Structure formats: structure tokens, C-alpha cells
Amino acid sequence: MSWYVLVERGRYGESELSSKIPVEGGREAAVTRAEEVARSCTPAMHLSGTSIGRMVFQTSPTSWFVELSKSLWSKSDKGPATIVEHLTVRAAELVHFQELIPAEPPKKSRFGR
Questions:
Q1: Does the global pTM surpass 0.70?
Q2: CA distances from 24 to 29, 76, 95 (A)
Q3: DSSP annotation of 38
Q4: Contact assessment for residue 85 and residue 14, using Cβ atoms and an 8 Å cutoff
Q5: Which residues are within 8 A (CB) of 102 and not within 5 positions of it... i.e. 6 or more apart?
Q6: What is the pLDDT, as a whole number, of residue 47?
Q7: Could you give the percent of the chain with pLDDT greater than 70?
Q8: Alpha carbon separation from 70 to 43, 67, 77 (Å, rounded)
Q9: Dmax of the chain from CA atoms?
Q10: How far apart are CA 81 and CA 100, in angstroms?
Q11: Cβ(113)–Cβ(21) under 8 Å?
């Protein structure tokens, strides 16, 4: 079918699919794009101008585990605080798709409600 790069964001012990990026071409194009995304993507919480630490681990031929860190210093802190976020980036082939059928509005009851 078609290939995608999937980016999962791990927060508070739960993960969520934060990006689903379609890729033109086959498996190799998707793997190449996934590695590029792992080395360069920056979630919104890290976009505020300071530098970001990044560690990228290849966990399989098609997936990467990314640790992003950012150092902050607020007025009330006695030292810098570090925020850490984890991402999993994967090249994945879409193997099945079933279109969602929109729900129909509820039928009126016999009393008009």
C-alpha cells in the first residue's frame, strides 16, 4: 500500500501518535525519512529559542528512540531545571485501511425530543 513515518510522543507513562507523515516511494525512502525526522524533529514545547539536547538510538532497522532535553532557569529556581521528553520514530507500511463512516444524527423520539 503506502509508507509513513510515525512519531509517538511519550508523556507521563503514556504515548500518543503525534505525527503521521506520508512518504512517497517504498520502504527505503520511508526508513531514510524516519531517520531524518529522528535527528531533527522538535516538539512544540521545545521551540522557545534555547538549544536542545538530543540522543537518537536506532532500536531496529525501521525505528528510533529519541531523548530530547532542555535546560530552563526560572526566577524562583536556585539552579537550572531539565525537561526531558521521549519520542519513538518509525517507518511503517500501511497494510489495511477502512474509511470511517460518519455517525448519523439521532432519530427523533415519538415525543419530538
A1: yes
A2: 7, 49, 15
A3: H
A4: no
A5: none
A6: 53
A7: 92
A8: 12, 10, 15
A9: 67
A10: 44
A11: no
